[in-house]
Design a protein that fits this description.
It is a single chain. This protein has 215 residues and is mainly alpha-helical. Helix content is 42%, strand content 7%. It contains eight helices and five strands; from the N terminus they run H-H-E-H-E-E-H-E-H-H-H-H-E. The strands form two sheets. A three-stranded parallel β-sheet has the order 3-5-4. The chain has a two-stranded parallel sheet with strand order 1-2. Helix 3 links the parallel strand 1 and strand 2. The longest helix has 17 residues. The protein starts with 8 loop residues before the first helix and ends with a strand.
Length: 215
């Protein structure tokens, strides 16, 4: 079983029926369990280890990342080793827009910081491209459903607050990030219609600086 941390309760029941007396090998990472919103069973890997009497073998060598990067993440995986020397880790301060090369790539866990960075880069004359096949259409669709485009900035922000609270009550893990994205666009204009226009413009960009999420 690959990506074991993403199995749902139904997947676990199916697996139990399939295993029987046979050997089972599961590959996964509990720190990458990010699919709770679609039904992944929290703590499923640990429960499976107990249920099947599995032996845990931690990944010990990274064949993807060189030495400098592996050393940088030893706060999370203290026994990690590297397969090749080299690499570079740079901790930069705030992005000013003037200190970014034209071929840079920004990777962030959440979308909202990327949107704010994209606006800053555009303001300094950079061309940007926000990667992700779903974030643009999903955000635009949500903005359009907030209400009439004549809503003022303050009215739009109030609607977003209500939208976020409602989704949080439904245990949506992405509600805060999506709400922050909408606020970034709304604050750049005086109405909801202007916010939508800004969003359409940004997601239509196909520039040299890449902005994308990574998990």
């Amino acid at each position: 079983v690959d990506e074991f941390q993403d199995l749902s309760p139904v997947n676990h029941v199916l697996l139990a029926k399939l295993v029987g007396p046979r050997r089972i090998i599961g590959v996964g990472d509990p720190n990458q369990s990010i699919y709770g919103f679609r039904g992944a069973q929290q703590g499923g890997m640990g429960q499976a280890v107990a249920a099947y009497g599995m032996e845990t073998l931690w990944l010990s060598v990274s064949f993807r990342c060189p030495e400098a990067i592996v050393r940088h993440v030893r706060w999370r995986v203290p026994n990690f080793k590297w397969s090749k020397a080299g690499g570079q880790v740079n901790i930069s301060g705030r992005v000013s827009g003037s200190n970014v090369s034209h071929d840079a790539t920004f990777i962030c866990r959440n979308n909202a910081p990327l949107m704010a960075t994209a606006f800053k880069l555009l303001g300094h004359g950079h061309s940007v491209s926000v990667a992700g096949s779903d974030v643009g259409p999903r955000l635009l669709n949500t903005l359009r459903r907030l209400g009439p485009e004549t809503l003022s900035q303050s009215q739009s922000l109030g609607v977003v607050d209500g939208w976020e609270a409602e989704r949080i009550d439904r245990d949506s893990p992405s509600a805060h990030d999506m709400a922050e994205c909408m606020r970034i666009f709304i604050r750049h204009g005086d109405s909801l219609g202007t916010a939508i226009a800004y969003a359409e413009h940004l997601f239509a960009q196909r520039g040299t600086i890449q902005l994308l999420t990574g998990h």
